[in-house]
């Protein structure tokens, strides 16, 4: 068995939206169990759960707009959203975003999840039944499969983006900076282009 060292932690839990708040509530023996209010529970024998609340009227609610833009929220099931945010927190906590380019190439992602996007699967099945398959979002599969958390571009490109930019020539960087080379921008860098970093590379070259 190989020994590992945990160097960064990112937590989204029913008792806190980051590691500090979660730990503080944990040592205070605060419970994250509460009555379910996100769907109809009238016919269910169990009416409580430990879940991440998005209700701003509740204590320790999680504000997803702090970490994700509207497009990411719409395209991804909640388990992917939570995973991306927690991973980003862990990366920042471990300070591995400051790794050099060679070290970043050695970074991998391993995710453990029970089953994936059940909420998306459930809502998708209802939509197909009520309105037909043509109304099903093209993002249904990538937003629900369990292995798509680790495969999301937003997480992987966190390490890859600057490496791609570093391999470009100065004239290519100038085109991207002026938004003329849109094919290269869209195909390689998605919507998360760091123009400040592009300008830094241009000045260095």
Strand order of the largest sheet: 1-2
Helix content: 40-55%
Low-confidence stretches: 180-193
Total helical elements? 11
SS-based class: mainly alpha
User: What is the CA-based Rg, rounded?
Assistant: 20 Å
Beta-strand residue fraction: under 5%
Name the overall outline: globular
Quote the distance from N terminus to C terminus: 46 Å
SSE run: HEEHHHHHHHHHH
Mean pLDDT: 77
Largest sheet data = 2 strands, antiparallel
- Please provide the count of β strands: 2
Task: Give an overview of the whole structure.
With 205 residues, this protein is an all-alpha fold. It is built from eleven helices and two strands. It has helices at residues 19-27, 70-75, 78-94, 101-104, 118-131, 140-144, 148-151, 153-166, 170-177, 182-189, 195-204, and strands at residues 33-35, 48-50. It has a two-stranded antiparallel ribbon with strand order 1-2. The longest helix has 17 residues, at 78-94. The protein is globular and about 50 Å long.
Please sum up the structure shown.
With 205 residues, the protein is mostly helical.
Layout: helices, strands, pairs:
Blueprint: H1 19-27, E1 33-35, E2 48-50, H2 70-75, H3 78-94, H4 101-104, H5 118-131, H6 140-144, H7 148-151, H8 153-166, H9 170-177, H10 182-189, H11 195-204
Antiparallel strand pairs: 1-2
Helix pairs in contact: 9-11
Question: Descriptors for this entry?
Answer:
205 residues, mainly alpha, two-stranded antiparallel sheet
């Amino acid at each position: 068995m190989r020994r590992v060292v945990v160097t960064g932690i990112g937590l989204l839990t029913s008792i806190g939206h980051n590691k500090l708040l979660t730990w503080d509530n944990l040592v205070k023996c605060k419970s994250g169990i509460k009555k379910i209010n996100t769907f109809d529970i009238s016919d269910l024998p169990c009416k409580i759960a430990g879940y991440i609340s998005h209700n701003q009227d509740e204590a320790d609610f999680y504000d997803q707009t702090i970490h994700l833009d509207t497009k990411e929220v719409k395209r991804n099931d909640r388990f992917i959203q939570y995973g991306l945010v927690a991973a980003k927190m862990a990366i920042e906590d471990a300070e591995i975003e400051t790794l050099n380019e060679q070290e970043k190439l050695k970074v991998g992602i391993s995710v453990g999840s029970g089953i994936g996007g059940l909420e998306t699967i459930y809502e998708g099945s209802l939509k197909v039944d009520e309105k037909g398959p043509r109304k099903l979002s093209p993002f249904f599969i990538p937003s629900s499969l369990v292995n798509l958390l680790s495969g999301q571009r937003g997480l992987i490109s966190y390490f890859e983006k600057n490496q791609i930019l570093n391999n470009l020539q100065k004239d290519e960087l100038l085109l991207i900076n002026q938004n003329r080379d849109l094919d290269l921008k869209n195909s390689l860098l998605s919507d998360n282009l760091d123009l400040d970093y592009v300008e830094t590379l241009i000045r260095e070259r």
